[in-house]
């Protein structure tokens, strides 16, 4: 669905504030016209020395119109901005609601800086849609019609001049601005997104750029992107300034026209001279209300381009039409069955999984081994419903995963992925990510199980865990998973950065806690797999062997060869350590 359609629906929901803002804008505009008209008439009347009560009435009218204009303008600003912020809030909530189900796949398609620019910048740009695109024409039309009716009671010729000037100001000037704006349509936003992307890349890779001596080169790229953005913004500002200048020219041209035609009509006896100053002041004021029309095309195209980028970020076809309501029971181990499951990443030439069929009994422990790129991690993502299989079906506890709410799966699963995120805060806050309530003693006991006795719960954790080693990150992620207390364990290389002794100690506590649970372990090391109920060997996205450790060793197939290679490498490493 187009974002402007969602924006329009959100505006309909805020129709009360929108109507009040339009009413306030009309009252403020017409009060301003009458205020300056009355001021011009008052100035003209003072020349003829009118009775005192006439001056008192006119002076009081001017003061009253000033108060009405100020109060209505305040109300117009209050209700229009409140409606805008409410509409923006609805749009942001809707956009994020449709974006979240697409993660993490969308993170692989968009660079993080560009995605951030879309989420923040493009959504914020749509705030101008009502204030700068929808609202001004409505207020200008009704204020202008009222002014023309008022002016026509004095002179049809001057009213016709008003109509001509308004057509130029409301149609021709914006049209000229639109022609120029089309040439740079979206270029400013593209340059801003490019700059955001480059900044994010430099911040994330600052350390590596520094080490490899490429920081100066990336700094020059940043300067180039910044200069390009400044140049585009200058050109865009020039078009806006051109529109404002042309509008000011039309305003003064019409005012001079009113003055000249009024003088002619006075000489011809068709207009009383006391009304000339009033009509000139009216022309200056009513065209001031139409000033927003000069910049309307720029904001309109900016809003349309922002809406287009948001629609590209979250395509309608990617949004699930319905939300499954099935619940995965957490009272016992989970049974898993994959039937002919295949999966291929977008833009990849080969599938990550090919016709995988596998059954994992509830309460069993299964290890998945194989070379890098064989599809092991992809299987975890499919089980968590982070991605959907291209073909085949996955069943959890006998029910198709399509029918199970993903939130229920996440609540039941204790997950440790290859890359685990840590938030800026403390060790305690990162351990209590699932919102559970634990005493400090329980948290310290868990840290001891994962061999992190040197840490305090109040120790700081930097963004993305930058102050933690890879081994500390893995152990902290394991502690977080063990605190979750689900009945399904999905572990993807959870101890790849740990030494053998630490790994055995940590996994001993994990296996004790996982007794009776379903455990799925992805690993490259083949040491310690003797106690697994089932070992699945994968290569090139396919299951090539499966069985117990003893069965696979007896078959002397792929797993047996992998084990022999590992033993040989471990033996060679031991000999090198013993060498003087």
Automatic annotation (TrEMBL):
Transmembrane feature ranges: 18-42, 48-68, 129-150, 156-179, 240-266, 272-299
Annotated CDD domains: ABC_6TM_CydC (cd18585), ABCC_MRP_Like (cd03228)
Molecular function (Gene Ontology), one example: ATP binding
Alphabetized InterPro entries for the sequence: AAA+_ATPase, ABC1_TM_dom, ABC1_TM_sf, ABC_CydC/D, ABC_transporter-like_ATP-bd, P-loop_NTPase, Type_1_exporter
Domain ABC transmembrane type-1: start-end pairs: 19-288
Gene Ontology biological-process entries: cell redox homeostasis; glutathione transmembrane transport
Primary location group: membrane
GO cellular component terms, A-Z: plasma membrane
One Pfam short name: ABC_membrane
Membrane topology type: Multi-pass membrane protein
Domain ABC transporter: 336-565
Subcellular location: Cell membrane
Annotated keywords: ATP-binding, Membrane, Nucleotide-binding, Transmembrane, Transmembrane helix
NCBIfam families for this protein: CydC
PANTHER family: ATP-BINDING CASSETTE SUB-FAMILY B (PTHR24221), TRANSPORT ATP-BINDING PROTEIN CYDC (PTHR24221:SF653)
The protein, known as: Thiol reductant ABC exporter subunit CydC
């Amino acid at each position: 669905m187009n974002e402007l359609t969602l924006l329009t629906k959100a505006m309909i929901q805020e129709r009360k504030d929108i109507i009040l803002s339009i009413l306030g804008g009309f009252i403020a505009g017409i009060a301003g016209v009458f205020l300056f008209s009355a001021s011009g008439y008052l100035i003209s009347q003072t020349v003829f020395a009118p009775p005192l009560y006439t001056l008192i009435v006119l002076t009081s009218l001017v003061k009253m119109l000033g108060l009405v204009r100020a109060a209505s303008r305040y109300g117009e600003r209050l209700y229009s901005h409140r409606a805008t912020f409410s509409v923006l809030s609805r749009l942001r909530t809707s956009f994020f609601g449709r974006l979240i189900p697409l993660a993490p796949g969308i993170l692989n398609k968009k660079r993080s800086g560009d995605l951030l620019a879309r989420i923040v910048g493009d959504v914020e740009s749509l705030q101008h849609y009502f204030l700068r695109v929808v609202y001004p024409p409505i207020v200008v039309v009704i204020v202008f019609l009222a002014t023309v009716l008022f002016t026509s009671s004095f002179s049809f010729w001057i009213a016709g001049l008003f109509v001509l000037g308004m057509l130029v100001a409301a149609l021709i000037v914006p049209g000229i601005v639109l022609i120029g704006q089309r040439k740079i349509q979206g270029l400013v936003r593209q340059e801003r997104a490019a700059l955001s992307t480059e900044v994010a890349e430099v911040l994330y890779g600052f350390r590596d750029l520094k080490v490899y001596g490429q920081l100066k080169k990336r700094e020059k790229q940043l300067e180039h992107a910044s200069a390009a953005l400044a140049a585009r913004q200058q050109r865009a500002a020039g078009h806006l300034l051109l529109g404002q200048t042309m509008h000011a020219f039309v305003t003064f041209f019409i005012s001079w026209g009113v003055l000249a035609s009024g003088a002619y009509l006075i000489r011809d006896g068709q207009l009383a001279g006391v009304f000339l100053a009033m009509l000139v002041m009216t022309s200056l004021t009513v065209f001031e209300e139409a000033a927003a029309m000069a910049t309307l095309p720029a904001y309109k195209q900016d809003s349309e381009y922002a809406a287009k980028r948001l629609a590209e970020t979250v395509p309608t076809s990617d949004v699930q039409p319905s939300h499954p309501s099935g619940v995965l029971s957490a009272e016992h181990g989970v049974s898993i069955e994959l039937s002919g499951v295949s999966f291929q990443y977008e833009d990849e030439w080969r599938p990550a999984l090919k016709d995988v069929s596998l059954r994992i009994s509830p309460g069993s422990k299964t290890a998945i081994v194989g070379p890098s790129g064989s599809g092991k991690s992809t299987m975890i993502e499919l089980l968590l419903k982070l991605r959907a299989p291209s073909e085949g079906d996955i069943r959890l506890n006998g029910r198709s995963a399509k029918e199970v709410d993903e939130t229920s799966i996440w609540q039941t699963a204790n997950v440790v992925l290859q890359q685990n995120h840590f938030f800026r805060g403390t060790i305690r806050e990162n351990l209590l990510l699932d919102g559970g309530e634990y005493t400090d003693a329980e948290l310290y006991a868990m840290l001891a199980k994962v061999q992190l006795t040197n840490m305090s719960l109040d120790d700081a954790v930097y963004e993305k865990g930058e102050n933690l080693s890879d081994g500390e990150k893995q152990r902290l992620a394991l502690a977080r998973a063990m605190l979750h207390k689900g009945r399904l364990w999905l572990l993807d290389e959870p101890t790849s950065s740990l030494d053998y002794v630490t790994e055995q100690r940590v996994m001993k506590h994990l296996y004790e806690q996982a007794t009776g649970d379903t455990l799925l372990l992805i690993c490259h090391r083949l040491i310690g797999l003797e106690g697994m109920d089932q070992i699945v060997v994968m290569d090139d996205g396919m299951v090539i062997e499966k069985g117990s450790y003893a069965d696979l060793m007896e078959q002397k197939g792929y797993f047996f060869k992998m084990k022999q290679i590992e033993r040989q490498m471990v033996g060679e490493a031991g000999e090198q350590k013993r060498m003087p």
